[in-house]
Design a protein that fits this description.
Structural class: mainly beta
Number of domains: 1
Shape: globular
Distance between the termini: 24 Å
Strand order of the largest sheet: 6-7-4-3-8
Radius of gyration: 14 Å
Number of strands: 8
Largest sheet: 5 strands, mixed
Strand content: 25-35%
CATH architecture: Beta Complex
């Protein structure tokens, strides 16, 4: 599979985006309390492969006037469509964490074929999988 442009949105359709993703490069699930409670399953888009198409002001922690950093849930329907992850000492490049559930034109067979990396955020052991992953 190669990089493909997907369109996505929140449930009510107020937040819209498109992202160039290569699902064969993998997706991610984490067991930290935040990801677990959100049931978050994500794919990584490079910043240059992501375009917000509208509704950024509907996101719960939208930061007006900032070029990047938009994240949060839609204030109308509660869906988390994407979030910017800024470069840091543990992450060399800024990227967008896209919720695969928010992709409108994703074929379920493509998602089922995509590799999944599990992160043990609950134990602050982010680079390794937790002992149990079936619930993620």
């Amino acid at each position: 599979m190669a990089k493909r442009t997907y369109r996505g949105s929140c449930h009510c359709g107020r937040v819209k985006f498109e992202a160039g993703l290569d699902l064969s490069a993998g997706t991610s699930k984490c067991n930290c309390t935040s990801c677990w409670k959100k049931r978050l399953w994500t794919a990584r888009a490079q910043a240059e492969d992501f375009r917000a198409l509208g509704g950024e002001q509907e996101l719960s922690d939208y930061k007006p006037g900032e070029e990047i950093g938009h994240a949060g849930f839609c204030k109308n329907c509660g869906v988390i469509p994407y979030g910017w992850v800024l470069a840091s000492e543990w992450n060399p490049t800024t990227y967008v964490s896209v919720s695969v559930a928010a992709l409108d034109d994703l074929d379920p067979a493509e998602l089922a074929a995509a590799p999944v990396t599990y992160c043990d955020g609950k134990a602050d052991n982010w680079w390794n999988a937790p002992a149990e992953t079936r619930h993620l």
